[in-house]
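Now for my pick.
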Amino acid sequence: YRIDFVGIAKPDVGFYTLNLKVVPKGTGFSTIEPSKVLKVLGAAVPSDFELAVTDAKDSRILEQARNKVKYPETLKGTPVRVDKLQYLRVSFRVRSKESNKAIIADQAFVRLTNLKTKNEAVFAAVPNVNEDRLYNLAIGMDENAPTFKYESGDYKLELIVGDALINPPFTWEAATVSLNFKNTPSSAKTTPKPESRRTASLPEITHVFASPQPLPTKSISSAFTLAVLSPFLVFLLGLLIVGANFKRLFSTSHFFYGVGFLTCIAANAALIIIYWLRLTMITTLGYLGVLSLPTIFFGNRALANLAWERKEKQKSH
């Protein structure tokens, strides 16, 4: 079975669902209804192309200000002049070449190319479904001056249209326009070009570090040092006044515990000194917790032996 779908239906470009129904004549067979999605490709051409210059983005375009041209011709005569504070207005439709119906293309752009420097500026055209799929584009010269790199001169205006259903896509040179960016503010003239911003030299970064805080005098530093060491000095002075006798800790009966107790005390003092120099509070507390266990053990045993020895001497007298 064959059917000339394109020849009979003459469909426009787009997607179609082809529904089939097969009914058998005999019994013992079931009816099937398969479906198939078809994509119809076709050529398209631009139409109703108009070019105008206005002083405002939404101002009404007078008939005598409309520059019309038909595809594939190019607008003849003097290039259309657009000054710095004006708008370049472009409108057009895209029609199927077979049915002449207006269609909406996925991609429609207007490209302006400087004839001298070959720099390009591309703008997307948006269709208006309320006006029979008419594409409208208003290009403000002042706001888009950086896009044109502030380059005055003649520009080639091209229409670029592409779509998955348009075969082939097309590019059409519709007109030549003359853009004028004179009287641009000096600040805008010095703006680096987009492609040169990565390689242009940047202003030098200068930084002044904060001046160091003034150090205290030698007398104040010495007084503070003595104030920090005063508790230890008072402790040593108290031992002398009380008459502490460490020799008893080194007697034969409890020599081991006495040496261990004094060693742990020295280790704790050294830990505090190291904390002042380099350790953090959390690390110091961890080491102090470890040292506290042998300190308590040796101290308890040493002092208990001393007390027991004192009681024994009292009993003997």
Q: What stands out?
A: Confidence is low (pLDDT under 50) at residues 185-192. The two ends are 135 Å apart (CA to CA). Residues 258 and 303 are 8 Å apart (CA to CA).
